[in-house]
From TrEMBL:
Pfam families: Sad1_UNC. GO terms for molecular function: protein-membrane adaptor activity. The keyword Transferase does not apply. Keywords: Membrane, Transmembrane, Transmembrane helix. Residues 1-128 form the SUN domain. Transmembrane segments: none annotated. It is found in: Nucleus inner membrane. This is SPAG4 protein. Its main location: nucleus. The keyword Transmembrane helix applies.
Length: 137
């Protein structure tokens, strides 16, 4: 993780849909921001603060062009800039199904009004795939 390589978005709010490589039952999410000491500006005010994670309920493979059927909230979290830059958040609402799209919605950051930066997002969970005869396992 280098200070100059992040996913920046305008302002303190933003969202991204993450297409998972396979259907998954997500159990946790890890968010990473650069440490204050490594920051080129000596501040981490662009770090995300309050955010939610949800799964997108779309048909079939979860493509963005498919029929939208809503979302299921998996948790409300706060990234604490006083802790380690790499923070893992266990999802609060258990999921019994597998999903292909995960939505990360950043509601606020730690004070930078111009932009918010995210350096890495990792989704943890159990992959659910198809076997050779097309049965889900």
């Amino acid at each position: 993780v280098s200070p100059e390589y992040c996913w920046p978005f305008d302002g303190s709010r933003g969202e991204v849909l993450i297409r998972l490589p396979t259907h998954m039952r997500p159990t946790a999410i890890t968010i990473q921001h650069v440490s204050q000491m490594a920051s080129l500006l000596g501040t981490d005010s662009s770090a995300p603060r309050d955010f939610t994670v949800s799964v997108s309920l779309c048909r079939a493979l979860g493509g963005l062009d498919e029929k939208y059927k809503g979302e299921t909230l998996l948790g409300i979290f706060t990234y604490d800039m006083q802790k380690e830059p790499n923070q893992t958040f266990p999802l609060q609402n258990g999921v019994s199904r597998a999903f292909h799209l995960l939505k990360l919605h950043i509601w606020s950051n730690w004070g930078d009004r111009r932009y918010t930066c995210i350096y890495r997002v990792q989704v943890h969970g159990k992959a659910v795939g198809m076997n050779v005869i097309g049965q889900t396992h």
